[in-house]
Amino acid sequence: MLDLATLAVLYEKYREAAALPVADFALGPHRFDFSRQTYLMGVVNLSPDSWYRESVALSADAAIRRGRILHEQGAAIIDVGAESTLAHAAQISDAMQADQLVPIVKELAAAGICVSVETYHPSVTTACLKAGAKILNLTGTVNCDEIFREVADFDAGVILCFVQGDHVRAVGDLDLSGDPITTLHDFFARQIEAATNVGVTRIWIDPGLGFYYRNLQDSAARIRHQMRVFLNTFRLRALGWPICHALPHAFECFGDEVRSAEPFFAVLALLGQTNLLRTHEVAKVRGVLRTMEMARGGNDIV
To answer: Which of 43, 50, 210, 281 has the fewest CB atoms within 10 Å, i.e. is most exposed?
Structure first.
């Protein structure tokens, strides 16, 4: 049962972590002041296998239109991906991913939108950064040195996703033993060191709560894990970088109201001091952000 007493105990135990700052930075004209604002990342999926059908765009024109709409709704970043993370979805070659993504990235970037590309392929990373993407949403752990050098060379940023496996499509069981924040901290510390050693200066860390590990197919187990990480997220501030969370769907709990799931989980993520929320429901989650800011007496939401 989640209640105020539970939150109070958690806060008191890790009070010092809650007060730690995280880095602010800019990507070209796009300034991110994480010390005072929470940001939204809108999602555009090119794969017809993607579970969240409202985010699927089956043509470049549709993807560009959705990206523009999400930006107007309040997304500071538009994240575009060509391959679904679902285990049964078709895997898309790196060449095909680049062919699909590059025209969309070019158009959105030309419109002044900060574009992120989700991939684990070095060649796709290079093609999209050349096309104007400012952020790589890295969903793999192989060839990272090569990828980090590309990010640094293009003066871009990277979202480091926690993945137990070579990439998001090659995960098995998630190690749930012990404190998940300790596991996350150790993983990110290694990745951050590798990235900064080759000149990367703009980093987000993402605990990867939306990935499809085999031992988290049971919805109750998955949601318990997600909630635990959300509420403990602020402990990762010790790493010094802003934290990104992909908001879950929890269809088994929400059913016909599944589009309300991400706004619900946004509350938990914000209690854990998340800096960037990756969401398919930008307008709804923006409403949650405004409400929570009003409760705190502020109004700085992007």
So the answer is: 210
